[in-house]
Amino acid sequence: MGIFRLFELGFQTVNKRIKVAFFLWVVNLLFSVVVIAPLYFLLQKEFSRSLLGDQMAKGNDFLIWLGDFIYKSRDIYPALFGWILVPMVLYLIFNIFLDGGVIGRIAVPAEQTNLSSFLSDCGKYFFRFFRVFVISAIGYIIFFGVAFRLISAAFRLWTENASTEWPLIFASNLNFLIAVLLFSLVRMFFDYVKIRLVVEDSNKAVRATLINFSYIGKRFLRAWSLYLLIGFLVVILFIICILVHRILPEAGVFFLLVLLWQQLYIFSRMWTKMLFFSTEYHFVINHPRP
Amino acid sequence: MKQKKVMRVLSSCVLMLALSVPNGTALQDKASILKFEIWVDLDDQNKMLNGKEDIVWINKTSDAITDMWFHLYYNAFKNERSTMLQESKEESFGPLGMKVEDGEWGWIDVVSIKLADGRDLKPSLEFIRQDEPLHPWDQTVMRVLFPEPITPGEYVHLQIEFQSKIPRGLQRTGYYKNSYFIAQWFPKPGVYEEGRGWNCHEYHLSSEFYADFADFTVHITVPENFVVGASGKQIRALANESEETVTYTFHQEDIHDFAWTADPDFIKVERDFIAEKEVSPEEYEEVSRSLWIPAEEIKLNNVKMILLIRKEHKNQINRHFQALKSAIKYYGLWYGPYPYETVTMVDPPFRTGSGGMEYPTLFTAGTSILRSKDVLSPESVIVHEFGHGYWYGLCANNEFEEAWLDEGINTYSTGKVLAQAYGPGAFPISLNRIPLNRFVKMPTYYDYDFDRAASIHIVELDPIITFSWKFYNRGSYGLNVYFRASTCLNTLERLVGQDTMMKILRTFQMRFRFKHPKTEDFIDVVSEVSGRDLTWFFGELFFKTLNFDYGISSLTSKEKEEFVRGVFDQDGKKEELTKKKIRKLKAEKKDSNTQNIYFTNVVVRRFGEAKLGGDATLKLKIVFEDGTEEIRLWRGRERWRKFRFEKMSKASFAQIDPDDIWLIDSNIANNSLKRKPFRNGIWKVTSHLFYFMQNVLQLVSGLS
Known about the structure:
heterodimer; A: mainly alpha; B: Immunoglobulin-like; Neutral Protease, domain 2; Immunoglobulin-like; five-stranded mixed sheet; 15 helices; 35 strands
């Protein structure tokens, strides 16, 4: 089956499971609230009764209030840093949990999706996916700790004798592109491991990982093209988002439009996350192991 | 003795010729006490400079001088025991340290040093280290002894041969492949200060330079394919076909340093700054009114602008010239006409470490291939480095000891010129060297806002006036001498008024052109021009590490209690007002619609250690809910003061410094206090942070 047909199937499945994207969005929202709440209270303490607070509303005196805020908060930087870091790690782990629900719901197209069935799948697959996460960490270390470093070193050698800035621009962008592509490879690989665990209802993460080498190896170009196609869609969405963001007015009630647009974009990110899994699921179903 | 007399007569003639000012130049005040003639060959293959230097120096002091001290700056790159590289190793502000790779060292050797009569001074040569802490192996300052003292009014004529290995692009100078930027490259005498001796510091990591005004004639021989730019005016280019070289001769009077650059890939573009075209009569009139100077005295000179730019930046040629024109115009109008015939702007050769640096009549800018139009770069560096032609070039302060006098004043001036010529600039945003400002809406800012935000964090570390190498680290050096000094000057401007500030800087510039002013001179000019004794301002903000923070501590508005309990004398009788009676009286009052009276108490506090002095006061403004205002003045010496108001309305907010004079205040948020909170701005900022965090979390989840 061609990748565009797989994309279409994935697209249809995600739209039938749009509730799941909503769940993901809510979780993202709640975690963000937890991280940002102390900053809100700090800002409130410093500026709610100051005329600078009025200037903040008008978008003026950016450097004045920011300078003040950084200066006054200097003693609590470590605490703030910790407060931001811990929820980020928790969010990462929670997403391992959520991935189970996402793929679990995609894998049963006939069933209705509700919060309880979603959470049930989250719980069902959490430990399997956690093992995949641990294995994937090895994958990331190999790719970014070794392969990417070697590539970066090669770029450094290439630009060491550059006579102009152009090679530096090409090299840093090429380097960045390679990093993104390497990341997409590792991520795609472990997406398929997770999908295999769900489709085969298996607990054996290591075995699924090993099998995946030959499975992806044989269908690499097709699988990666599909992955990059959705990646391309993510980039397009991102560009649309910032371009629209740029033209939206922020004054008065128009600011509500900005908020709405921001949340729409975050929701679209959840939707594309599901689209990755969904197309990969259809890929596995339509390209069974012999 | 006879020989000495003959030498004196001959040298007098040489000196008189050398120091004569051509008629019709803009240089009114002959400042030079030195004359240099230098011949230098660039050995491209070995990265060497072979030079000969003729120096004539006149003793204008009343001291008999027995020795002469020279800077040998290139020896800073000789080994890791030089003061600069030692300081770099000890630098706590990591990214600002520097590292020399194997084979990239630089040095300078004085091959010979003689008096013009042939007497050899080299046997007396010794290296001097006097700056604390001592670096006993440093070789960036040398001293030679004269056979007999140079008496007041006498001159000395020296002939030096030197050889320099050019370092690979390092601190302001060096080479990369066959591109060169050559600065601080020849043996240069220190500054003799009457009664105090030679002021000749080692080359430090966090320090720039100090030298006497001189007339330079420099002959630079380079391979014929090189494009050369240098301080001053090119007066000759002689090709030597057999050696495939060209010797360029540059000449400039009344400058205190000489730098040059050579690169086969430079594009050289020349344009003229025609004062008549660039400045309208109305603009002259306007400045004339502000400065109380006749418009004729403000007239600018025409200037030949020379740009040496790398090929890959040639699409920015107009941008470079536009910025330079703005700088020549506004520095000229506000602080005095640019007195030289030429200015050379160099797009620094790739990887020579020479960007963003000033030399008399020549400066290096700095740009990159992809630049956003919204971001004022390279404009800001062009304006700033040209501005140093005024603050360092003409008013030649000692950058080792009082760096703020050029960096601080020039950072302030740069902000003024950029604001006038361009308005606010946008924050840059880029990904992998690709600017993204076209796509992402970034906040804009004026330099004074940036300077303040950068410098409020540094106040308790070092005073602005500190020897450059004695700052806590390079971060403190930079933030204090550039940004904190600029913020203080912006504060001073708001305190004395824009026109007065312009008069102060113009007076300082014109009075100390071709001289070596000190901080005390600046303070004297400030007090003289403003008509106020502002010594305290500098005492608190420049010489000490005192935080400046005034604020509103509390604001309350309470209804005046018209009826209070107790026994009162009424018509010769004692009458008790009980709770019950009070309730009744209040009800009657309510029915009669009598307006309430409110007591408003405002407590202002001096949270910081710095305090106002002289005739300075802080303005306190209280705005009431009925729209009325009250203004009070507070001298701000004590730690706090309470102000009380009896009004028909409650207070809406209280604000000290409502005119935003005290930009140096480290906490502007507490300058105002509203009775009721208003959270719209906080919601807005938080929502942006929230959205940002949502995206960050989404990225993090990609690892799951």
